Amino acid sequence: PESPPPPYSRLSPNDEQKPLDLSDSTLSYTETEATNSPNVTPGDFSDASTSPDAVKRSHWCNVAYWEHRTRVGRLYTVYEQSVSIFYDLPQGNGFCLGQLNLDNRSETVRRTRSKIGYGILLSKEPDGVWAYNRSEHPIFVNSPTLDIPNCRTLIVRKVMPGYSIKVFDYEKSCLLQHTAELDYADGPYDPNSVRISFAKGWGPCYSRQFITSCPCWLEILLSNNR
Fold first, then answer.
1. Does the residue 81 lie in any domain?
2. pLDDT digit string (tens) for 104-117?
3. Which positions carry the signal peptide feature in this UniProt record (predicted)?
4. Rounded Cα gap, residues 128 and 146, in angstroms
């Protein structure tokens, strides 16, 4: 209840991306939880989205995991203020991607999955949603509030290991939804979604033009109930 705020709040708010303090207690709770809890064994993870207490609270996002054009597993509903999304390290509460099975995975997908490691920490804060890159490889992010308004060029941000970024800005989102012209979107458009790929980027600066060409990626579907 009295846990300290995430580390970025102690840093300059002017920087778009901020270093991640891995020694902070808010980020290391999962490792100590897995080590000290007798109920957590290697390869296991507890699903906070299905606990009785969680059902009573409203969720703030759903997370979908994709491999290229195929969604793997069910939607993961998030009720807590923060959630770890990782591969197969026993880290207590969170979304364990290594537990999701799919027949006939390509070698490219297998190699990329092996790079997810500690993955990301997704955190809902008063000013928006932050993503902390806890893996040893970069992540790539796109969202409506990271794009340049009225620009047809997709903006994909590269976030290096140990850094965080505000992937969704609530205030900016409200402004965009009041002023955006819907006829500029080429195809389906969700003003409350964030897309994050692991290790492989996409967009105008990469050989992969679309995120569906990325081996492993997440779709963060934000709830309007903030």
1. yes
2. 999 999 999 999 99
3. none
4. 12
